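Subject: design request, 291 residues
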């Protein structure tokens, strides 16, 4: 038996119910709905602002597929173009400039380069400051491109490996202690002068000291005393002419014709003097010079 839809609906609605009719509403209504719409709108605004800021940062920092700003990523590593500033430590295996350009390190105070071992202990340190350049290490060396040693310094000695050491200072070179060298010579057509203004000048060698002036004179000048001493050997004056122009003269004058011939006399203390020659030796007569 078929019943019309109106009657069936009326039949369901007129069915008895113990609790009365119940109505179920699906969805969000009232102030909750308005708050939800507000938060959704606020979230969309934040998303748009965040997207705009991200696009602006990408544009300002010049982000590209190859890198950002002056930083480029290449097959050989990172490439920086222009001036770069690092506020934190930089760790790199190698830092080099672009081909044909110089590499500059700029600092307001100093630039320090440290070489560390496995225990982070400083082995070598180079400090370039506004007043001085300081290097700390066990040995310091300067070499040519071919590897020839030009200069080296350590705790034991300082070595100059150049062909010639030239000092251009007006006061010359000052050695507070001794100097050891196989040869001391002046530049061509220049004079060599060894002088001690306030103290003595000592030259020592286990096998002898040779002073040679091939194209000029040699002078030894002092204020008080010049001593030539040979403990085990002899002192040889080998020359075609030897002159002692300022030797004192004895007071003895023999009778008769005055001669211009003198004999060289030696006192017991080693002093030399001239005595006018006679038929015999006159040195014993002029002993007043030895007093």
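Subject: RE: design request

Done. Sequence follows.
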């Amino acid at each position: 038996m078929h019943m019309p839809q109106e009657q069936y609906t009326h039949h369901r609605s007129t069915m008895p119910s113990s609790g009365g009719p119940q109505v179920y509403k699906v969805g969000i209504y009232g102030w909750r709905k308005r708050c939800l719409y507000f938060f959704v709108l606020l979230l969309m605004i934040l998303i748009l602002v965040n997207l705009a800021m991200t696009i602006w940062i990408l544009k300002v920092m010049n982000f590209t597929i190859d890198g950002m700003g002056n930083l480029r990523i290449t097959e050989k590593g990172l490439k920086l173009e222009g001036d770069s500033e690092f506020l934190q430590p930089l760790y790199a295996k190698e830092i080099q400039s672009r081909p044909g350009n110089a590499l500059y390190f700029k600092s307001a105070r100093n630039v320090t380069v440290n070489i560390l071992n496995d225990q982070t202990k400083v082995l070598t340190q180079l400090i370039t400051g506004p007043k001085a350049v300081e290097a700390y290490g066990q040995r310091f060396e300067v070499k040519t491109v071919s590897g020839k040693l030009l200069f080296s310094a350590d705790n034991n000695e300082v070595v100059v490996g150049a062909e010639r050491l030239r000092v251009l200072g007006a006061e010359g070179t000052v050695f507070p202690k001794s100097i050891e060298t196989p040869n001391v010579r002046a530049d061509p057509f220049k004079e060599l002068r060894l002088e001690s203004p306030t103290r003595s000048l000592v030259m020592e060698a286990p096998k002898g000291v040779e002073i040679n002036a091939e194209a000029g004179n040699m002078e030894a000048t002092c204020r008080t005393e010049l001593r030539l001493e040979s403990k085990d050997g002899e002192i040889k004056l080998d020359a075609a002419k030897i002159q002692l122009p300022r030797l004192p003269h004895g007071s003895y004058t023999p009778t008769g014709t005055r001669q211009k011939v003198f004999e060289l006399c030696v006192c017991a203390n080693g002093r030399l003097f001239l005595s006018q020659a006679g038929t015999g030796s006159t040195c014993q007569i002029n002993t007043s010079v030895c007093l």
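The two ends are 178 Å apart (CA to CA).
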